[in-house]
Structures are given as C-alpha cells and as structure tokens.
Amino acid sequence: xxxxxxxxxxxxxxxxxxxxxxxxxxxxxxxxxxxxxxxxxxxxxxxxxxxxxxxxxxxxxxxxxxxxxxxxxxxxxxxxxxxxxxxxxxxxxxxxxxxxxxxxxxxxxxxxxxxxxxxxxxxxxxxxxxxxxxxxxxxxxxxxxxxxxxxxxxxxxxxxxxxxxxxxxxxxxxxxxxxxxxxxxxxxxxxxxxxxxxxxxxxxxxxxxxxxxxxxxxxxxxxxxxxxxxxxxxxxxxxxxxxxxxxxxxxxxxxxxxxxxxxxxxxxxxxxxxxxxxxxxxxxxxxxxxxxxxxxxxxxxxxxxxxxxxxxxxxxxxxxxxxxxxxxxxxxxxxxxxxxxxxxxxxxxxxxxxxxxxxxxxxxxxxxxxxxxxxxxxxxxxxxxxxx
Length: 388
Known about the structure:
The chain has helices at 21-36, 86-99, 119-127, 132-135, 141-157, 161-175, 189-193, 226-230, 259-272, 289-298, 307-312, 329-333, 337-352, and strands at residues 3-10, 45-49, 77-80, 105-112, 201-203, 206-207, 217-225, 236-245, 281-283, 367-373, 378-386. It is of the alpha/beta class. Helix 2 (86-99) crosses helix 13 (337-352).
C-alpha cells in the first residue's frame, strides 16, 4: 500500500525579512492541512525536515508545528535531516509510517532560514554536507566541491560551458512563471555564458549563474493512505520511490558519473514499470548547473558524457521531449535546504493536477523528482501520478 499527497502549501522563497523557522513552519503547516481538507486532530504524525547545521540557533524544530494550532499537541513529531535531500527524506519517513499502517494521515514540513547567516559562514555550514577530511580545505565551499567535479568532467568530456549556460538560462526563464521563486528574471544565455562583474567566477569553472541561491522558505505536504485519499477532492499517488546512498568521500567514486543518482532512477523506474521517456516532466536537483547536466545522464536521458545534447538540442525545455525544472529549479526558485525536496513534490503535484499556472506543462500525467544530499551521496527519486 502506497501513500498519496492530498494537500500542500508553499511559502515565497527568498530573503524573507521578519521570518524565522517557527513562522515559516506555522504558515505552511496550517495552509497544507487546510488545503487537504483535514483537521489537525486528523493528523497522526508529523515530520519536519530541517538541515540547519548552524543557520538557526533553534535546532529542535519538531514541536514548533504545534505553534500553528494547539490541536497538534501530543502528536508524535520528529525532525529529519539528510543534507540537501532532507525534504525528500522527511517525506519518505511519512510514507514509511503509512505503509507500515501506523498512520493514515501525516504532515510533512520542510524549512530553512539561511539568509540571516553571513556569507562566509554559509559556505562553511554547507561544506558540512561534504567529507571534511578531504574537502574541508576546498576553496569556495560547496561550490568548490562541484567545481572540482566539473573540472574532472571537462577533462574527460570536454568544456561544457555552453551547456551550463543554457541550463542556467532555461531555469531562470522558467522561474519567471513561478510566483514563489526567489529570482523571477530571464537572465538570457549571453549573460549566463560570459564572466562579468555581475556574473563573476565563484569557483572555476562555475560562475554565479551556475550556483543555486542562499534562500529562506518552507513547503509542506499532507500524506494519506489510499483509503483516505480516495475520499479527498484531490490526490497524487506515489507510483514509485527510491533512496540510494553512496560513499561520502569523492575519492572512492568516479565523479564524472553520478552512480547513486543513476541507481535511484533505475530502481524507481523499474518499480513503476516505466522508462524515463514516459515521464511528462522532471523536477531535479540543480544545486549547480553541473549537477543538472550530469543528472540528465544518470536518469538515462542521454548516454554518459552526452548530457549537453539534452539542453543544447532543446529536449529539456518546457516544450521539449522531457521538460526539466519547469518551476525554475533550485537555480531560480532558490534552495532553502530542508524545504527543497518538499517543494519539488508540491510543484510536481500541481503539474499533475493542472494547477501549475504559468509553469504548467501541457498534458502532464507522470512527474519525476530527484533530490540529492551532498555530492550525490543521498539520492531520492519519486515518480508521481494523479490518483484519478
């Protein structure tokens, strides 16, 4: 028995002055429960996804949901963390509880407050999602980690600067239609391709437009078992899901191909009895444009080393053969760590319900999400479809 998404909520992403993790959690928790048409007393368990690691002094968030409505009081509430895949990890925990028949309705909230932290500290906090014994001295924080990956990929497959700029430009163009996105501006290919005062090198070869944003935000979903979902006005079912974890040290892997990501996609597609070509759209983890490029290969859209074709030939555009990140992705929408995976499931569900507004992909019937923690260390794939 699988679980379904029966309601959701999403805050604005960006620099949210006056908000903290408590206010962000309360806002989306209340809105998601209302959207699902259930009451707080109907919720059997709560999971809160928060990476934190120093972003907020409030490092024990699970019962903050109770601040939204006192009727949540005495519900089991648990904080979940798995680096940048924290949001999807929290959703998986909720689904596990439902599938074990220990709950019928579960509230999942993902949240992060990042912008109150000074820039150098942000870099060090995020580097905690890498293997510090090897990566602790890499310049540029986590951007430096993916710059290292890009350098190795370029050495093996050639310079990919054009493809990375096309990915950035595509996602920023898509983000213009996302009312929650941190940046709603079409930056254009030329701006993303050239180094400039406004688009400097962050960690060679990655420029500012190749890197996701420091962001505040929250998102929430209400999960329900099939019987409960059938009685709701709307429901999106998990046709398949997978989690694959990899070695943490990059030295133990060939970082020119994301094996953990590939295995996660293969497992989920096999379970769903689908191929990647059957999907209507994918929301994928473009923490850096290099990540999205390599994810094309890992999901099987292209052969290894040929990921550039997918974007250069327009396959991943909103009207292409497989739209990737019609929401604008992490690149335009923003990347509040704990909220990202939940946000992916929200926007994918909206697509399948035909409720995505300007982001809508025509005829969307099957959606895939990929959310990863660290440098493709924790890898989560979901394949979603409408229940009806």
